[in-house]
Write a structure and sequence with these properties.
The chain has about 350 residues and is mainly α. The protein is built from ten helices and two strands; from the N terminus they run H-H-H-H-H-H-H-H-H-H-E-E. Helix 1 runs parallel beside helix 3 and helix 2 runs antiparallel to helix 3.
């Protein structure tokens, strides 16, 4: 009875604390939907500019539905699967999904706002404008095109208008920013779980972490081969996406250099409602902070939590229980032995153990 009331109070506190985060994400997405309806700036151009004379590709290598699947659904499912089935942590699930939504919402609003403000013509702009390569539209041959004397041309010369609006939205690349936003966040998430920077140099960790980034790079470069974007558009879009991926990740997770990089920040609620908090008699608030309270999740009573909160484990060095796929995400047992020259092992500092995964 008392435990149920405490859980209900904790749920209410969590909702009150994070409701504004989700509300702001929704507001940003609504703002994006409004901004996306605006007419982009129609920049002047030259019909002799060979960088905008490429043919319009009717079929894209990565259409929008595939972009959403690879850059949003795939990271969301991966984060959810690890948090629920491997970490068994609702805090990790919530922080991971909130971080992903935050990253992608910021990517969308910033990318689209810059697109509309800049109004750069796409590489296939003249084909959109004058149907250079589509005989069905009786387009004007390139050798018959010319700019006004001592002037540049503008969109009033276009004889084809249904593709014109999107033709002025080249910079930056939306596919690039969205792919690096979602898959970049996934890379950060995996790097934290695997303790990528544990100074032990496991190649498999690097491959796992870089796989989403490589996929994002392939999606981005496909926009150049499809003549949808210039290389500068792809470069800028990739930077925007990865910047917001890192920004969003660090709102809810510690640095990848941290010994506790595999754990989300603890919920933003009073410590009375945290699992194993002062309500359960675990020391003062100062003790909890010094023992890693900031990085605790709601895993509660598992071995990892006890190791973080209470110092070195009593598990024998030869015990290999639990080794399997989970070893990619779990922490090593604490090594309290002396090094070869008789000095204390640097992985142990007082009662705060440096925990590094296999």
């Amino acid at each position: 009875m008392f435990s149920a009331l405490r859980m209900k109070s904790r749920t209410r506190e969590l909702f009150k604390s994070y409701c504004k985060d989700w509300t702001l994400v929704v507001i940003v997405l609504v703002a994006f939907s409004i901004v996306d309806q605006l007419e982009p700036y129609h920049r002047q151009f030259s019909v002799r500019d060979i960088t905008i004379q490429h043919p319009f590709a009717k079929q894209e290598t990565v259409p929008v539905w595939l972009l959403l699947t690879l850059s949003f659904l795939l990271p969301m499912v991966t984060v959810g699967a690890i948090a629920v089935f491997q970490r068994r942590s609702y805090t990790d699930l919530h922080n991971g999904l909130l971080g992903l939504f935050l990253a992608q919402s910021l990517v969308l609003i910033v990318t689209d706002s810059v697109k509309i403000a800049v109004g750069r013509p796409r590489p296939d702009f003249l084909d959109r404008c004058l149907s250079l390569y589509d005989n069905a539209y009786a387009g004007t041959p390139l050798d018959q095109l010319s700019d006004p004397v001592n002037l540049l041309s503008n969109s009033t010369i276009c004889t084809r208008t249904e593709l014109l609006r999107d033709g002025f939205k080249s910079f930056p690349s939306g596919h690039s920013s969205f792919s690096f936003g979602g898959l970049g966040f996934l890379s950060m998430y995996l790097a934290g779980k695997l303790h990528l920077f544990d100074e032990r140099g496991h190649i498999y960790k690097s491959l796992v972490v870089l796989a989403p980034m490589i996929l994002a790079a392939l999606i981005a470069t496909s926009r150049v081969s499809d003549y949808r974007h210039h290389w500068e558009d792809v470069t800028a879009g990739s930077f925007i996406g990865f910047f917001f991926a890192v920004f969003a990740y660090r709102q809810y997770y510690p640095s990848l250099a941290s010994n506790k990089s595999d754990r989300p920040f603890s919920p933003r609620i009073r410590e009375d409602f945290l699992p194993g908090g002062s309500f359960l008699g675990i020391g003062s608030s100062n003790d909890r902070e010094s023992n890693g309270q900031r990085y605790r999740d709601d895993a509660g009573e598992d071995d990892d939590t006890r190791l973080v909160m209470d110092g070195p484990s009593n598990q024998s060095p030869g015990d290999e229980s639990g080794v399997g796929f989970g070893q990619f995400f779990r922490r090593d047992r604490t090594d309290e032995t002396l090094t070869g020259n008789g000095t204390p092992n640097k992985n142990v500092i007082g009662t705060e153990s440096r925990l590094i995964p296999i």
